[in-house]
Amino acid sequence: MPDARITFEGVGKRYGKLWALRNVECAFHPGEVVMLIGPNASGKTTLIKCLLGLVRPTEGRITVNGEAIGSDPAYRTAIGYMPQISQYPATLTIGQLLEMMADVRGMSNNEPDDRLVEGLGLSAQLNKRLSSLSGGTKQKVSAVLALRSRPSILVMDEPTAGLDPLSSKRVLERAAAVRDAGGTVLITSHLMEEVEALADRVAYLEEGSLRFLLPVQEILVRAGTKRLSEALPRMLESRALCNA
Amino acid sequence: MLKVFKYTLIDLARNRFVLGYAVLMLLVAQGLFSLEGDPTKALLSLVQVVMALVPSIALVFTVVYFYDIQEFTQLLAVQPMRRGAILGGQVLALAVALLLAQAIGLGLPLLVHSPTLAALVLSLSGSGLVLVFISLGALIALKQREKARGVGVALAIWFLLVLVYDALLMWGMFTLSDYPIEPFVVPFAGVNPIDLARIMVMLQVDLAAMMGYSGAIYKNFFGTQMGMAVAGLIMMVWVLVPGWSAMRAFNRKDL
């Protein structure tokens, strides 16, 4: 396995008396897709937000490409992020938003990869105002924003929620392409089919703690089954399987 | 910062509330000058409207706008740019949008109907109030997580500065009327940006004479170049302190 691209070293986040994340120790490598799964409020989004610098950890340290993340935002040049909820300035058009984000990231007009704009059927809608878009179309815009700068770290929070099956397929294909190009992809999902189709490793979070981070094959072997959707419940029912 | 400023301004330029603000001010100003034959009297009525309306609109709009763009701000914050640049660009765009709306709604009628020094001071004071209340609005929006609570705090602050502060000052002056308290009135009035703006305009239309001994004190102090500079400085403090606090809050905030 190559050197870790992202490490979490004893990372914890507390909101008041509640620990949303507790002592998370893990590493994510180039060329892999890690699916973050867990029940609602298990800390998946907080973990992602800590990596993105949106949330400041109460304790511990996060590194990206060997450098601890701090107040310098330069490390985010490598990151593409697709949030769970997309809300954009109401009166801007899709075209203006794409232009703005390219501008903010310092990309020239020729640089962004806009095949996804066409692939997701957004080419004809570039002049539409963002306020007039459906939730699904806003998700497509978010996917384009996350992917068009060719990130080496791709973070997607429930990327296919609200997307039609064809668009979901295209977005996940692009995520896989980022992995194949040596990128690190972190995806939160509740959909086992997605996890099964794409994941190289699965991280399971519960009550803010990382219960396991294992390759898919190992989960299947430990659980003694061929389907991840059957293996995960078995793993969770038995602490011994998680720790083995 | 300039990139955020540019696109936030494009968004605000098409915002119905900003356009509505310009039209409302235009209608009020034009209406007052049309109904009142004497431009000075119309200007005095306009002063009261500006002192009540401008702070409330700038404050509430800023608070609501910051809540409305919260998720987008989050998306900007994961780009390779400093948070200071994001907030700076957004606040600057809000200031330019509201100042332009005010220049059209208030500045144009004043220029046409009453091109006097008093009108210029009213325009400048109104602009100062826009900046003060945008700054306060940004701070409120960043300190309060819930939109309803943020709007509530904004309205409470507006109510406090527009009505309660003056009522307390009047009550104090009335209760202590047997004592020579006028020298203390100047600093107390000067602390409230709305009162300060009102005094600066009143001095230009020479209403100080009608305000008795307090008016004379105001004139003696704020009527001088030194007084004007102090007034400008107080306004600047009202812009910079909440603005700096907002920046600090944003830099530390979990988004």
CATH class group of chain A: Alpha Beta
Shape of chain B from CA axes? globular
Let me know the largest β-sheet of chain A: 6 strands, mixed
Q: Approximately how much beta-strand content do the residues of chain A carry? A: 25-35%
- CATH level-3 fold name of chain A: Rossmann fold
Characterise this structure.
The complex is a heterodimer of chains A (244) and B (255). In chain A, helix 7 crosses helix 8. Chain A is globular. In chain A, the strands form two sheets. A six-stranded mixed sheet of chain A has the order 6-7-8-3-9-10, sandwiched between helices. Chain A has a four-stranded antiparallel sheet with strand order 2-1-4-5, with helices on one face. In chain A, 34% of the residues lie in helices and 25% in strands. Chain A has 244 residues and is an alpha/beta fold. Chain A starts with 5 loop residues before the first strand and ends with a helix. Chain A has one domain: Rossmann fold. Chain A contains nine helices and ten strands. Chain B is mainly alpha-helical and 255 residues long. Chain B has one domain. In chain B, helix 5 runs antiparallel to helix 6, helix 6 runs antiparallel to helix 9 and helix 8 crosses helix 10. Classes of the chains: A alpha/beta (244), B mainly alpha (255).
Helix and strand arrangement:
The complex is a heterodimer of chains A (244) and B (255).
Chain A: E1 6-15, E2 18-28, E3 32-37, H1 44-52, E4 59-64, E5 67-68, E6 79-82, H2 94-104, H3 115-119, H4 135-147, E7 153-157, H5 165-180, E8 184-188, H6 192-198, E9 201-206, E10 209-215, H7 216-223, H8 228-237, H9 239-243
Parallel strand pairs in A: 3-8, 3-9, 6-7, 7-8
Antiparallel strand pairs in A: 1-2, 1-4, 4-5, 9-10
Chain B: H1 2-13, H2 16-35, H3 39-68, H4 70-77, H5 83-113, H6 117-143, H7 147-175, H8 182-191, H9 193-204, H10 212-222, H11 225-252
Helix pairs in contact in B: 1-5, 2-3, 2-5, 3-5, 3-6, 3-7, 3-9, 5-6, 6-7, 6-9, 6-11, 8-10, 9-11
